[in-house]
Amino acid sequence: MMKKLLALLLACALVFSLTACSDSADDEAVTTAATESTEAEEPEETEAEEPDEEPSETEPEEPVEEPVEEPVEAEPNPEFIAELVKDIPMTADTIDAYLPEDGSVTYNEDGSVSANVSSISFNVEDIYFGESAVIYIKGTAATESSVKVKYGNSYANGFENVSGDFEYYIQYDQGVDTESEGIPTGTGYVEISTDDGAAADITITELAFYNGTLDDYKADVEWFANAPAELFATYDETKFTAIPVTQDSFGRAQIVNSPIEVDDAALEWTDDGLTINGATLVAFKLPSGVGMGNTIVVHIKGTSDNNFRLWLLDEVEVTASRQIDMNEYFRFNSGEYDYLIELTTEYVDAEIANDTALQLAFKALTWDTTLDGLTINELGVYYGTLEDYMAGVESNPDAALQPVAEDADDTAEDTTDDATEDTTDDATTDQDAEDAQ
Q1: CA–CA gap between residue 437 and residue 432 (Å, rounded)
Q2: Contact 307, 364 (CB under 8 A)
């Protein structure tokens, strides 16, 4: 009986165990299905991709310093060379556009002007608008003023807010066409006026002009440092023998290659000298000849509208010295001239030698151009070198006549009639040496 009861209990336990396992499997299936359904409905979460490199910490930017522009220093004025400029007279005759009260303007003996005024100006003669020129002005203004070069009411150039001592180079113009700009013809003027319009002490110590641009003037200042010695020599008329600028001293003249006479229309003789318009060459006889290798100093004075050349001629009228281009040698272009020039008798053509220079010739710039507006007022000659002259040695015409050449005694024999005849044409044209320049 007991065995049957145990067997029954074991069977019940087995049935219970199988039922429990079946329920558990069903629950897991339901849970799995639910989970799968939920996963299907919810989007999958994707993990953020990690950067390859960890971001570096941002360093603070250093402040950028803006470049500071250093002030540009004004270019210093070139040296003032009195020999390169022409004075502008400051007189009662040249004062312009101003009627000063008595005693308000003082014209000093040294050429300077002092005034207690609100404005003062002076005409700049011989310079016309449309030409290149530089005005040099130096002085003092007690109060802020303007310093300008003007031309009518249409042109002004210069400096403002000037006070105390001043020194300026002012470009006169930039070549403006006076007709197209409606500027009246005539000369310009330099004006100093106070900014507030009240009278103040104004002094002008220097006023001058230079023909050309400021760059031209600077180049001339450099040239002046090595200028020829003649430029610094002072003329002493007691040391010179005068060459009268008259028809009696006339040597020869020509227009291109054609000789002209002393009374030709190109030559205008007056009591003050000779004015040439249209001649290519004009020569004057020296008081005494200059032998080969000897040196003289000539003095020339006058006016000219243009550059020109100068040299010696021998007895057959061949060039017998170096040729002086007045612009290249003295920076002369036009205006008044008053120079001493050292010349030595020598030949460009070596086939002609041992002769004597007998004439002083003025010549145009080329063989086929003419001298125009050239006036000769004074001529003179010192027989000796410039060094002798400056040392006070007396002029010696007799010594200058004797050739320095070694074979001086044979000079006459060496110059044959045929040689003289063959060189006359060359002398007339002057093309064998100098016209190639």
Answers
A1: 11
A2: no
